[in-house]
Amino acid sequence: MTTVGIHPVTTVAALEQALEDRILDGDLAPGGHLIEAELTRDYDVARHSLRAACDALARRGLLTKRVNRGFFVPELTKRDAEEIFELRRALELPVVRQLAAATTIPDDTKQALAAFEALPKSAAWRDIVRIDVEFHRGLVQAAHNSRLARAHSDLLAEITLCIVQTGSTYDDPREVVREHRDLVKAIRSGDPDRAEDELDAHFAEGLRRLPFG
Q1: Do 108 and 178 have their domain in common?
Q2: How far is CA 75 from CA 28, 160, 182, in A?
Q3: Alpha-carbon gap, residue 25 to 127, rounded angstroms
Q4: Which residues contact 83 (CB under 8 A, 6 or more apart)?
Q5: What is the 3 state secondary structure string of 50-74?
Q6: How many angstroms separate the first and last alpha carbons of the chain?
Q7: CA distance 76 to 74
Q8: Is the dihedral of CA 100, 103, 107, 113 positive or negative?
Q9: What pTM, to 2 d.p., does this model score?
Q10: For residue 65, what are the domain limits?
Q11: Which of 55, 72, 89 is the last residue in one of the domains?
């Protein structure tokens, strides 16, 4: 009989996950300052564990660290968002057109869409955010271009923060499902122009829903 090792989650990893969930849910609001004393008390952890978890999130772009001030949730401006979506379009559009020409949906994107379809109306926003990221990551990785994938990966933290900020504008997560389903249909149509139009509409809707209007 084969023995399978169980790897316990460290305090720092568990805390990183808990804080990430709160960022993705919008519970830790954009611009918010993480109060060290409150968090160490709430999670019953040592300060060095909290700082290690926050450092890990800062390396991923989900927090920013300010000298002598601590950690903050990044707050995107309207111009930030416009630049993020402009770069997203530059990275994702050629891939989407290529996939449409081949009528191909990458497996990772299919799995993300299936996960979207299975979401209940009461789904936590963090689950939607994570699926959304995997949906688009799957598209870009299908290009088999390591530099393109790396550039997109470098942008993912800011893309994630944009998605987080749109959460309060959706009454039903199935609206997000419909947007992604429509993009998949456009790719499967074999018409690159239709796929481009659908991707542009998807990004325009994301920008429209951001709270700074």
Answers
A1: yes
A2: 11, 12, 30
A3: 9
A4: none
A5: HHHHHHHHHHCCCCEEECCCEEECC
A6: 60
A7: 6
A8: positive
A9: 0.83
A10: 11-72
A11: 72
Q: Is residue 187 within 8 Å of residue 195, measured between CB atoms? A: yes
Q: Of 48, 72, 96, which residue is a domain's last?
A: 72
Distance, C-alpha 2 to centroid of its chain: 37
- The tokens describing 32, both together, are 């918010």
pLDDT tens digits for range 158-202? 999 888 888 767 777 788 899 999 999 999 999 999 999 999 999
Instruction: Check which CATH number belongs to the domain holding 94 and give it.
Output: 1.20.120.530
Confidence check: pLDDT of 6 > 70: no
Three-class SS state of 163 = helix
2 inside domain: no
* Pair 54, 132 in one domain: no
* Residue 43, C-beta contacts closer than 8 angstroms, at least 6 positions apart: 15, 18, 50
